[in-house]
Amino acid sequence: MLYSDYHTHSSFSSDSDTPIEENIKKAVSLGIKEIAATDHIDFDYPDPDFPFLFDYEPYSKEIDRLRKIYDIKILKGVEIGVQPHVIEQINSLLNKNEYDFIIASSHVLKDKYDICKNDFFEGKTQNEAYFEYFDEVLHNVENYDFFNVYGHIDFINRYGTYKNKVINYIEFSSIIDKILKTIIQKNKGIEINTSGYRYGLNSPHPCFEILKRYYDLGGKIITVGSDAHKPEHIAYKFKYIYTMLKEIGFEGITTFNNRKPNLVKLF
Ligand SMILES: [Zn+2]
Ligand SMILES: [Zn+2]
Questions:
Q1: Which phi and psi angles does 80 have, rounded to 5°?
Q2: Ligand 1 centroid to 204 CA: how many Å?
Q3: How many domains does the chain have?
Q4: Which ligand is nearest to the CA of 159?
Q5: Whole-model pTM?
Q6: How many angstroms separate the alpha carbon of residue 148 from the centre of ligand 1?
Q7: Of 203, 102, 200, 212, nearest to 150 (Cα)?
Q8: 95: domain CATH number?
Q9: For the CA of 114, the nearest ligand
Q10: Using one digit for the tens of pLDDT, what is the confidence trace for 43-76?
Q11: Closest-lying ligand to the alpha carbon of 8?
């Protein structure tokens, strides 16, 4: 049984033109019980063609309308792009608007580098680029609190021009452990994001090695999200992910009510 998809984008995101309703219809057709509409807000995004901002009012009204029509729990959510210099701006926005669920993600590094563009990687070894990424994620989880799960925590390997994009956990174990331990101590979680498969990685984000480490360190809060930008992405590979979560030892997945976690025992 597919239970929930906690990472989806719609036309409220600068990089999707899918009406939220299309995602909802698809989720209903798959028998999903909960979906979080987590459109992008990324303050100070470096590409002017993608402002990654949306107004809360029309978004919230649209969710209210859809909640009356469809037999599925719809969460008002956001995927907030965290950069150290915009944390105050984020906090004031999130204090003003009511979200049921918040994903924090690192999409932009060092105040200006969009990870999905290659200029961040120029002149760096793979190891250096990945360390810089994890270093900024660590800084963010230590200094920023307004989130429920950290998004696609190892997705630096989605981009760059390196031949072998696999992240070798052992090489980065000390910084990855610090990130995971900080998240666990703060009673926050991570997501498992299946978009890695769409990017040809043969792995979700994070990869199973990191996921297993999160479990071994005591991590319990875990949401499952497709990072859908189109309806056909909804719940992609979730059955397989559930099998893997069970194999690692997780009892189930996490859902949220007013940003409070609940364990849904699935396995
Ligand atoms: Zn993202
Ligand atoms: Zn996303």
A1: -95, 130
A2: 13
A3: 1
A4: 1
A5: 0.98
A6: 14
A7: 102
A8: 3.20.20.140
A9: 1
A10: 999 998 999 999 999 999 999 999 999 999 999 9
A11: 2
